[in-house]
Design a protein that fits this description.
This protein is mainly α. Helix content is about 75%, strand content about 0%. Helix 11 packs across helix 17, helix 12 packs across helix 15 and helix 18 runs antiparallel to helix 19.
């Protein structure tokens, strides 16, 4: 246990919380301490990007850092890639708003990692070269399966980017006092620079830097919150339930979901969607071998588990400390303020405001910079995953049939990064007021409904054929996106229709089984020479996945000869 005299000394080093409240007032841009720390961290990430640009010469360098990342480095980078705005800002905001049920996201994010560790990491590394579509199409028709995998990846990247861009835009908006649109434009510009200039090498080191900052900053905030309540969880929860509009109900389940279907659907998305996130799966190819891939997931799981313990402290700490002080809220039209919706910058900024209340402008500036670095690291990974889907899968393998110069493929990837940045700005502007953890949950739903079923069935079930994988992947993708569009999130909040067509916010409970069933049905009913060759090739794939041998014949060749 950390000595209390040490924490008292740390806290006394911060300026008074009143200074932070003044900094968050009308003239938000006057907090020069916070802005200075913010700019320093951004400058550090740009230096990392510049230094990495010299080592990015080939497609392997651009996509996977030449497979030269160690297991420990990759573990931190995976944690940095996964602990996004959805974790730091979004889950703490959900706990701040709804209480206990916000923990579902924290536990769900953590629960998905054993699946990645024990089922996916080793086989992915042995079967693939640059991204997960390499493994999914190993024994199937590479053109059609890659198209489905690339399309699914791009949709997941788009949804996940919305969450990150919203968080980044709100942080800059609160800190600098600029308009939200210009805030998200600046984020898009930086993420394009990271990916286009530095590739995976720069992205990896930005993610490692961000992971260390986030774990350190979160630990500091957690300790200060506990010190504030005499290291008593009961005091923290008692104060939170006293000041929250819902009272003691925030300590009980039922605040976020009105019925069990939504909770189960979200749980499925969080658990299985993690194993279908393209920017996470892409990190397995940055290490030398499958053993390092497995070790890196173990290290990442430890980091994610630790931070999942810190997040509830931030959420309930924000309730107990912020809701008792009107300085952090803005008056609404009636001259009053709502403790949940009228927080400056919205509920997504609860953790940022809490840092100001705990440590004044210094801690506010540091945590704002950490939040921004968190988002930049994740959007860089997402953009790289989306760009690789366009350049490596669609352009190089499908359009050019593998006959493309490395330099040209990298140029296409950089152009794709620019286009993805523009699309991200448009979507983030349209979904400005959505909770970032909720938007990440939708991305995980699509990943669990399209990417995960195709990948899991292709590498684990002998009977999977190209037709089954393609039809099942498309069914999962189309159904999950359609259900999201018809739900309240889009149909009502964006399109402004009076009522939602689909009654649930999260579609995974319905779309994921549809995908698995479609893969199974359309595979067992396919009876031709190519399907038989693909089933026979499962043995070669199994040996490849177990041994990592690179000279085993694969089914695309077998399938073509059989056809």
């Amino acid at each position: 246990m950390t000595p209390r005299w040490f924490l008292a000394a740390v806290i006394s080093a911060f300026p008074a919380a009143a200074d932070a409240q003044a900094a968050l007032g009308a003239n938000q841009g006057s907090n020069w301490i916070a802005i200075g720390m913010f700019l320093v961290i951004v400058a550090i990430t740009l230096v990392i990007t510049y230094r990495s640009s010299g080592s990015t010469k080939s497609t392997a360098d651009f996509y996977t850092a030449g497979h030269n990342i160690t297991a420990g480095q990759n573990g931190l980078a995976i944690a940095g890639d996964f602990l996004s705005a959805a974790a730091f800002l979004g889950i703490s905001a959900l706990i701040y708003s709804t209480g206990f049920d916000g923990l579902i996201y924290a536990l769900g994010f953590l629960t998905g990692w054993p699946i990645v560790l024990f089922l996916m990491s080793e086989r992915l590394r042995n079967l693939g070269q640059f991204n997960f579509s390499d493994a999914a199409s190993f024994r199937l028709d590479r053109t059609s399966v890659r198209l489905v995998a690339a399309t699914g990846s791009l949709v997941v990247v788009a949804f996940y980017l919305i969450a990150q861009m919203i968080g980044a835009g709100k942080v800059i908006q609160v800190l600098f006092g600029v308009q939200y649109l210009w805030a998200v434009v600046s984020v898009a510009f930086l993420m394009i620079v990271y990916v286009a200039v530095g590739g995976m090498q720069a992205t990896t080191w930005v993610q490692i830097t961000k992971a260390c900052l986030l774990l350190g900053g979160g630990t500091l905030m957690g300790l200060v919150i506990l010190w504030h309540f005499d290291f008593s969880y009961s005091q923290l929860f008692a104060e939170a339930s006293k000041v929250h509009p819902k009272g003691a109900a925030i300590l009980a389940p039922g605040g976020l979901f009105a019925e069990p279907v939504s909770a189960i659907s979200l749980g499925l998305a969080l658990v299985f969607g993690t194993a279908g996130l393209p920017h996470i799966l892409m990190r397995f190819f940055t290490v030398k071998n499958a053993a390092d891939a497995r070790k890196s997931v173990f290290y990442a799981t430890a980091c994610v588990a630790y931070f999942s313990w810190i997040i509830p402290l931030l959420g309930f700490g924000a309730v107990a400390i912020l809701m008792s002080d009107p300085s952090y809220f803005k008056l609404n039209a009636s001259g009053q303020f709502n403790k949940i919706t009228d927080l400056i910058g919205g509920p997504n900024m609860a953790a940022i405001h809490l840092s100001g209340a705990l440590g004044g402008p210094v801690l506010l500036g540091f945590m704002s910079a950490v939040a921004f670095a968190t988002i930049l690291a994740v959007v860089a990974g997402l953009t790289l995953a989306g760009a690789s889907a366009v350049s490596h899968d669609i352009y190089a393998q499908v359009i050019a049939k593998g006959k493309v110069a490395e330099g040209r493929e990298v140029r296409v990837s950089k152009i794709a990064a620019i286009v993805i940045g523009i699309v991200a700005v448009i979507l983030a502007y349209a979904f400005e007021n959505q909770n970032v953890a909720f938007m990440a949950g939708l991305a995980l739903s699509v990943a669990a409904s399209c990417n995960f079923p195709v990948l899991a069935m292709a590498i684990f079930w002998r009977g999977t054929t190209t037709r089954g994988a393609v039809v099942g992947g498309l069914v999962g993708l189309i159904s999950s996106v359609l259900f999201v569009v018809l739900s309240k999130t889009v149909w009502v909040a964006v399109f402004h229709f009076p009522a939602a067509v689909f009654p649930y916010d999260n579609p995974a409970l319905f779309s994921m089984p549809l995908a698995f069933a479609s893969i199974w049905f359309f595979s067992i009913t396919e009876r031709n020479a190519r399907a038989d060759a693909e089933r026979r090739a499962f043995g070669a794939q199994f040996v490849q996945s177990e041994t990592g041998l690179a000279d085993i014949d694969t089914s695309p060749r077998l399938a073509r000869s059989a056809a």
